[in-house]
Amino acid sequence: MTRDRDSRRQQLPEEVASYVREKIISGEVRPGDFLRMEPIAEAVGVSNTPVREGLLALSSEGFIELIPRRGFVVAPFTQQDVRDLFWVQAQLGGELAARAAKNITPEQLDGLEAIVKQQEKAIAADDEEGMVEYGHAFHRQINLAADSHRLSLLLRSVVKQLPNRFYLSIEGRAAATREEHPLILEALRRRSSRMARSLMEQHTLDSADHLIETLEERGVWKRDEEGEAAS
């Protein structure tokens, strides 16, 4: 019971960080906005203590800043920040895919093929939950096949800086994923590390372009541009 309570206590700040991170990247809160702890605590369903811990974690990631005696404020978040996050993810994911091409077993290949088929069904049915679930499963299986625990942990630390579900449901990515995941699977079947790396890197970098385009359409950076124009 103690272990369960400790685990839950650790998860609460992560839930707060995920909630606020998504509000920042989606543009619901903008650079310069102060974050009040009480509304966040109410929205997530936690006390102020995990809210503060979660905000401190976001501060270490550069999403927000702690101003003494004033509180937490949203830090600038630019298009280049998005590209940088995806670039790092692309490099690590590409290396893991290359290693997986060498190490993957026939059973793991069959498992990936089953995941690809399930994801295709989810896309055809416009099942967003399924698309996200099988998309995560596809990449997770490749990372496991790479048998590189430390590299996988590094990738996970980068991926968590992007909202879990946000960029996976970007308009246009479902159709692209339907084409790209089978190509990556084929590269793994051929044991082609070079092809697997290249396809995985491009697959990830294309997601950055789609996310930036979507955020621009939502006006995430509009206020900054207007401010620059007025100054």
Automatic annotation (TrEMBL):
Tell me the SUPFAM superfamilies matching this sequence.
GntR ligand-binding domain-like, Winged helix' DNA-binding domain
Question: Which Gene3D superfamilies does this chain map to?
Answer: GntR ligand-binding domain-like (1.20.120.530), Winged helix-like DNA-binding domain superfamily/Winged helix DNA-binding domain (1.10.10.10)
What would be one Pfam family of this protein?
Answer: GntR
- The answer, when asked if Hydrolase is one of the entry's keywords, is no
Name the domain of life: Bacteria
| Keyword DNA-binding appears in the UniProt entry | yes
Molecular function via GO: DNA binding; DNA-binding transcription factor activity
* InterPro entries named in the record: GntR_C, TF_FadR/GntR_C, Tscrpt_reg_HTH_GntR, WH-like_DNA-bd_sf, WH_DNA-bd_sf
Sorted UniProt keywords: DNA-binding, Transcription, Transcription regulation
Coiled coil regions in record: none
Every copy of the HTH gntR-type domain together lies at 10-77
Protein name in UniProt: GntR family transcriptional regulator
Which taxonomic lineage is given here? Bacteria, Bacillati, Actinomycetota, Actinomycetes, Kitasatosporales
